[in-house]
Amino acid sequence: MLALRGLAGGYRGARVLQGVTLDAPAGQVTAVIGRNGVGKTTTLRAVMGLLPGVEGEVTLAGERLTGRPPHLVARAGIGYVPEGRQVFPDLTVEENLRVGQRRPSRQWPPERLFALLPNLRERLRNLGRALSGGEQQMLAIARALVTDPRVLLLDEPSQGLAPMVVRELAAVLRRLAGEGVAVLLVEQNLRLTEAVADRILIMAKGQVVHEASAAAFAAEEEAVRHRWLTM
Amino acid sequence: MDPVALFTLQLLNALSLSALLFFIALGLTLIFGIMRVINFAHGAIYMLGAYVGVTTQTLTGSFALSLVLAPLAAALLGLAFERSALTRLYAREHSAFLLVTFGLALALTEAIRLAWGPDPRQAELPAALAGIVFVLDEPFPVYRLVLIGAGAAAALALWLLLHRTRLGLLMRAASQNAAMTAALGNDVAAVRAAVFALACGLAALGGALAAPLFTAYIGLGTSVIIDAFVIVMIGGMGSFVGTAVGSLLVGFAQTFGNFYFPELALGATYALMIAVLLLRPGGLFGREE
Ligand SMILES: Nc1ncnc2c1ncn2[C@@H]1O[C@H](COP(=O)(O)OP(=O)(O)OP(=O)(O)O)[C@@H](O)[C@H]1O
Ligand SMILES: [Mg+2]
After folding, report:
1. In what order do the strands lie in the sheet with A151-155?
2. Do B185 and A143 touch (CB under 8 A)?
3. Is residue A92 scored above 70 in pLDDT?
4. What is the pLDDT at residue B267?
5. Could you report the predicted ipTM of this complex, rounded to two decimals?
6. Number of domains chain A is built from
7. Does residue A57 lie within any of the structural domains?
């Protein structure tokens, strides 16, 4: 569904991405793990059109997205759940959701959305800043879903969440993959990753350096952890 | 004169001044809220509104038409300027934006001098608005009551825009997190252009409303932009409610300062600003960044 080919670029003076190539197929959870600072967030920003001057290619079901501004990338069918959640703090939950809805969501009308993320229903009139971390995360996911995405990018959604909320999150991600969404999950939390991912990719120094199915990854975890994940 | 009547008249004077200041300060704060920059050209746009208003009225005899054409002309000018010059600058240093808008202020002032000449221009109020009413047995100009009504109507209209329309929702969202607003499928550049045009239109409407009272003259923009800066600082940059409250405070400080302490009048506004900023550096309704 989503394909990245040789993405390169970064920030002034720092070429963070050194040719990132990966695929996120429909109906699967593709996880990307890697040490701090290897370029996971930068990769997602590059896909969204939020990073100027990117080289390489991003395609969505064969349609080339590279170089488009963020709002057209989103309209093409990519939902973005950013690092740190970034809910609008001074908008209500309901308003946060409306920002993503240029027209009423077809795939995620309210009944379906609140069946998936029940906690949000009672919070509709509360400000984004008043939510707990877990609620903010669910709101960030809901806000991306109502844009009717074919691909969902999530950047460390488990960060700062209690174990029970992480389990809820895992269930939500599996449900979404079951609906046919291509989920691209950036994570540091190996437990969540192993629980939900179909494939696990490891990033180091701005490239994908290793790729394995979830089962294969579990078998080789010690070696992988030692080689690419410990500091 | 009865002190109660006197006080009441000053109160109404203060409210009418607040209303005029509100039109220009509102635009400044809307632009700051979404672009995080000060538009130095805002005073010149207000002045342009006054001149276009006076000329419209001279040519057509219609005050009402001047209140339509002046904001329309300024909004179109603002839109063209935002799309051609400003839109490239958001990603750069703020100083570039300040310089370019300062340049526009100078250019616009000179253009007005060339087009209208150096002498002040004044238009007559239509008869229905030129009269007086009696407030507690004292005469008071009808037009100042009209201004108070216009300011209140503008505040209400803006509140409805911000809270009851999609454009308003996107304005609020973009002022909190522009990148995320775009990443959810919204054309933030178009929102910025709309805000800039709207802000210019509001300033010009204020200028056209002010013209019958103050006449249109070169320098009208400079005096009023300083008051508007003070209001936006007092209210808190980017805050709609803060701008309304700041306009009231400055209008009152100037009117009552002038009346009761004429020798300190100029200082009243600044004393107010310093007092507020000492207590709350982000302004009354601002967030400290
Ligand atoms: N806005 C920025 N300007 C300059 N450098 C940046 C910026 N954002 C990130 N970097 C640098 O780019 C590199 C990659 O950052 P990135 O956020 O993509 O890493 P990450 O893999 O997401 O890390 P983490 O696990 O900590 O979230 C880091 O060295 C970081 O310091
Ligand atoms: Mg990151």
Report:
1. A78-81, A151-155, A182-186, A29-33, A199-204, A207-213
2. no
3. yes
4. 81
5. 0.95
6. 1
7. no
